[in-house]
Specification:
This protein has about 230 residues and is an alpha/beta fold. The protein contains 7 helices and 9 strands; from the N terminus they run βαβββαββααβαβαβα. It has a single domain (about 15-230), classed as Rossmann fold (3-Layer(aba) Sandwich). α5 links the parallel β7 and β8 (about 175). The protein binds hypoxanthine.
C-alpha cells in the first residue's frame, strides 16, 4: 500500500495504461480487459488489473496536471515495480493537428517548473521510450490511423493566456496537454519505459471540440493502439 494506491505488491501489472480520468480507467477496464479487478478506490482514483490477449495489464487514473500524475507514476514505479507506462489522454491540437487525430508524443516541452526542480535548474528533454514509440508508429501506420509523431507541450494552465501557442506552433509542436513532461522525466529517473498517445479533443485556434460520443470512438482506436504497442 502507498499513500495514494491502496493495493498490494503484485496487484498491479508491469504494464500500465494511464488515462487522466478515473472513469476512463473504468471504461477501458470494462471494454478492453478481460477479468478486470479494481485494486484502487483511494480518492476515487480507480485502478484496475486484467489481461489483454493474455497479457497482464493495469489501467490507472492519474488526475490532471503534472503534480497529480507524478504522485501516481512515482508510486507505480517505486512501490509496484511497474516497467512500462503509457499515457492515453486527450490534447488540444495546434499546428497541423486536426480534430480526432492521434498524436504519438516523441517529446514534451513544458512551462512547468517541476523538471527544473528535479535537475537543479537544467532543462532536461523529456522523451518517449524509442521502442514503444516505434511500435506505436508501425501499428498506427498499418491501421491507417490519422496520426502524427512529434513534440507536444505540457502546460500548467488549461486556460493559458500567454502567447505560448504562437511560440510552440512556430517550433512545430503538435498539441497541448498537462501531464507528459512529468511522466517522461519520472520514467527517466526510474529507468522505465514511457509513452504518451493522445487524441485531439479540441483545436485551440478554432475552438472545435469533439462530442462525448465522438471522443469515445477515437478513444477506442487509441486504447487499442496503446495495448498493441505495449505487447508487440
Ligand atoms: N490544453 C491543455 N490540455 C488539454 C487541452 C488544452 O486545450 N485539451 C485537452 N487537454
Amino acid at each position: 500500500m502507498t499513500v495514494h494506491i491502496g493495493a498490494q505488491r503484485g496487484d498491479i501489472a508491469e504494464t500500465v495504461l494511464l488515462p487522466g480520468d478515473p472513469l476512463r480507467a473504468q471504461w477501458v477496464a470494462q471494454n478492453f480487459l478481460e477479468g478486470a479487478v479494481k485494486y484502487n478506490t483511494v480518492r476515487n482514483m480507480f485502478g484496475f488489473t486484467g489481461t489483454y490477449k493474455g497479457n497482464p495489464v493495469s489501467v490507472q487514473g492519474t488526475g490532471m496536471g503534472v503534480p497529480s500524475l507524478s504522485i501516481y507514476v512515482h508510486e507505480l514505479f517505486n512501490d509496484f515495480d511497474v516497467q512500462t507506462a503509457i499515457r492515453v489522454g486527450t490534447c488540444g491540437g495546434i499546428g497541423t493537428s486536426k480534430l480526432h487525430d492521434i498524436i504519438i508524443a516523441m517529446a514534451a516541452s513544458t512551462d512547468s517548473g517541476i523538471n527544473r526542480r528535479i535537475t537543479g535548474g537544467l532543462d532536461f528533454a523529456p522523451i518517449a521510450d524509442f521502442d514503444l514509440l516505434a511500435n506505436a508508429v508501425e501499428i498506427a501506420r498499418a491501421r491507417g490511423l490519422n496520426y502524427h509523431v512529434g513534440g507536444i507541450a505540457t502546460m500548467d494552465r488549461f486556460y493559458d493566456t500567454s502567447n505560448a501557442v504562437d511560440v510552440l506552433e512556430s517550433l512545430g509542436v503538435l498539441g497541448l496537454e498537462m501531464e507528459t513532461s512529468g511522466l517522461y522525466t519520472i520514467a527517466a529517473q526510474f529507468n522505465r519505459k514511457a509513452l504518451t498517445i493522445c487524441t485531439v479533443s479540441d483545436v485551440i485556434r478554432t475552438h472545435e471540440a469533439t462530442t462525448a460520443q465522438e471522443r469515445e470512438s477515437t478513444f477506442s482506436a487509441m486504447i487499442e493502439l496503446a495495448l498493441e504497442a505495449a505487447f508487440k
